[in-house]
C-alpha cells in the first residue's frame, strides 16, 4: 500500500494521483497501485517556516504519516518539494520510509541531459535557496541555474496564484517569461520544483525549455515500486 502525504497543496495531490494512474500501465482495476491518501491542507506553509520563521509543519506531517502507516501504507510519498526538507524529522518520529521526489527528479535529469549541461529550477524560495536540488545535481554533473531575485519573487507570486486556482493564460505567460530568462542564462531544461508549477506547465503548448516534472517523476517511481509486476509477486 502506498501512502500519499498530501494537502501541500490539494491540487498538487490530485495531480500526483492522476499521474500515478497514468504511469502504472494497468489493464484492469486490480493492476493499479493500492493507495491511501492523507490530504490535509492545514499543514503549515513549508516555505514560510524556513524563510520567515513561521510555524513548523513537522508535527502536522508526523500526524499524517502516522495515519497513513496505521491505514496500512508500507511506503510513503510527500507531494511537496519543500516538504522534503522536513522528512528526516518525520522519518525519525515515525519510522516511515519515503520515496524521494528529489532523487526521482535528479535521475530523470541525468537521463534527459548530457553531463555538464546546466538545469534551471523554478521553485519556492526555501527549495531554491537550499541544497535540496543543488547538491544532488552537482554530484550528477549538472550546475543549477536559479532565477534572479525579481524572477524568484515572480515565481512565488505564481505559486500563490495556482494555489488560489489561477491557471489562466496570463499565469502561463508569466511563467514562460521566467523560464526564458533561465534559458538565456544557459539552462538546458527546467525543473518544475514546486508541485503547483507542473499544473501551469501542462497548459503551456510552447514552454521556453524542456520541463522536468518532479510530480510525474515521483509517480513513475511509485508505479515501478508498487505496479502490476510487484503486486503479482507479492
Automatic annotation (TrEMBL):
Q: Does the keyword Transport apply?
A: no
Query: Is the Isomerase keyword given for this protein?
Result: yes
The organism's superkingdom is given as Bacteria
Query: What keywords are annotated for this sequence in UniProt?
Result: Isomerase
**What Pfam families does the database record attribute to this sequence?**
Asp_Glu_race
- Output the PANTHER family linked to this UniProt entry: ASPARTATE-GLUTAMATE RACEMASE FAMILY, GLUTAMATE RACEMASE
Recorded family membership = Belongs to the aspartate/glutamate racemases family.
Q: Which protein are we looking at?
A: Aspartate racemase
Question: What organism does the record attribute this protein to?
Answer: Actinokineospora diospyrosa
